[in-house]
């Protein structure tokens, strides 16, 4: 079955950086686009952050993160990454990776806290 496991979250000061990882299994990883979402607090709608195509040649970003975040993938390791630079408090959220194969699948999320 499809499994997604995020890691790499933590607490950083404004201007800092973090690199999130999402380890995937249970599907043909290279065939599918992968997405990152975030949810800033319980009850709020999730916000789409970034997308990367199956081959890794196409990436898309939300305006709020463009120029600061970079999504990448290693198909040999079945892992997708989110490099986050110049973090600010508005980036505080639980970050989830997502794939749609026969339906949407989500990881458990990893908490990112940006605070001075």
Q: What fraction, in percent, of the residue positions are helical?
A: under 10%
Number of beta strands: 11
User: How many strands, which pairing sense, and closed or not: the largest β-sheet?
Assistant: 7 strands, mixed
Strand content: over 45%
Distance between the termini: 40 Å
Count the DSSP helices: 0
Provide a short characterization of the protein structure.
The chain is mostly beta strands and 116 residues long. 0% of the residues lie in helices and 51% in strands. The strands form two sheets. Strands 2, 4, 5, 6, 9, 10 and 11 form a seven-stranded mixed beta sheet that branches.
Notes on the structure:
- By secondary structure, the chain is mainly beta.
- It has no helices and eleven strands.
- Strands 2, 4, 5, 6, 9, 10 and 11 form a seven-stranded mixed β-sheet that branches.
- Strand 4 and strand 5 form a beta hairpin.
- The protein is globular and about 40 Å long.
- The N and C termini lie far apart (40 Å).
- The mean pLDDT is 97.
SSE layout and pairings?
Elements lengths: L2 E5 L2 E3 L5 E8 L8 E6 L7 E6 L6 E3 L7 E6 L4 E6 L8 E8 L3 E3 L3 E5 L2
Parallel strand pairs: 2-11
Antiparallel strand pairs: 1-3, 3-8, 4-5, 4-9, 5-6, 7-8, 9-10, 9-11
Features:
116 residues; mainly beta; seven-stranded mixed sheet; four-stranded antiparallel sheet; 11 strands
């Amino acid at each position: 079955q499809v499994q997604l496991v995020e890691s790499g979250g933590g607490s950083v000061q404004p201007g800092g950086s973090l690199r999130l990882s999402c380890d995937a299994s249970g599907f043909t990883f290279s065939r599918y686009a992968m997405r990152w979402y975030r949810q800033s607090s319980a009850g709020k709608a999730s916000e789409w952050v970034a997308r990367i195509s199956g081959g890794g040649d196409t990436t898309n970003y939300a305006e709020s993160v463009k120029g600061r975040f970079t999504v990448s993938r290693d198909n040999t390791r079945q892992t997708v990454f989110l490099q986050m630079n110049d973090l600010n408090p508005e980036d505080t959220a639980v970050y989830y990776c997502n794939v749609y194969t026969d339906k949407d699948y989500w990881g458990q999320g990893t908490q990112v806290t940006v605070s001075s």
